[in-house]
Amino acid sequence: MSEQLFQMQTFTNGSILAIEGGRKGDHFHIITEGQVVLRKKNPVSGEDAAQHLGKGDFFGIITAMTGFPHLETATAASGVVGVISVHRDRFADLIRRNTPLAMKIIRSYSLRLRQLDSILHKNDDKSSDSIQEMINIADGTLDLGNKELAAYMFQSCLESYPEGSHRAKCIAKLNYLNKTESRTLKTGSMRTYDKGEIIFCEGEPAKELYIVQAGRVQIIKYSNGKEIIVNNLKDGDIFGEMALLDNKPRYASAIPLELSNIIVMSKDNFSTITETNPGLMAKVITVLSERVWVSHKKAVNSKITDPAYRFADMLMILAEQSKVRIAPRVGHNYKMSPEDLLHSMGLGDTDMPNLIRFIKSHTFITNDGKTITCTDMSLLELAVKGFKDKYSKY
Question: Model pTM?
Fold first, then answer.
């Protein structure tokens, strides 16, 4: 089937095309006739429980491109539903012929990611004024003791918004930090960053997309008075693409964890490259698909009130994100400490007793003080299912 570019299929009213939580799905679908309804058992705040799709709309792409479980159930909702089914291996061939489709997918993902980010960080103290918002983030970062990142933010604010009442405050902060008003920015499509050298900061205007050629980069975000680790990136990973595509300020900061070589694409050449290099576009869409899935799962997780359920669910999310096989006697080392786990969930030291209690009460979860390990993924899956059955509203 994957030898064909696409396959035409028809379904009758009520046919189930995808099942929420199901892991099968190496094709995504474009509707050519009729209607399809997508339903979520656990819609996040602001999301409709049911979404109606029609001709030209698509579904199933997240699972097809990532292999992650479906986020919703897709049901045929008209007498006849016609779809074009495309295997993930042929996606680059499809967008070579239909670049606007790829851009439609990416823009829909960018919007969805922004919505999910606003849910995950809805209590952030943010102003509609981009300048004041950036200064607030810089002040909060300085309060946390991250002087280098705070200075970079004040410098970026001055360069991005050179005039205004904020200027005097930024200069005063930079004088306090013994920093100049301007930064020395790297240029070119191939760049090398030292450990700790800032690639970009949260709140500044976005101009470029980045690909890690070699090294590791950490993405961090200021939220509710805390510095949250959003992601740790490795060779081949793409970052900065969301702000690049929707022209919004950076939603987080990027800082290398070691000497890193970075490939850079600018807004000016991005459209041309996506037309001439559909393989890169396919990779960008795969990255966005992964982030939509993870962000949705984390948004649902943030609403769980039972600490044990929330920890178990988050460990399952992280394992699936790492493409760990869910099977008996298959283990997974999360390579993160209990503190790291709490930090990634936006939790603090006061939640540590609950986490330690959870670990001690589940024999298949171990903690040596440095890393958390699950010794049997099937038992973790059963635990999460048990919690879901107990709290069916989640």
Answer: 0.74
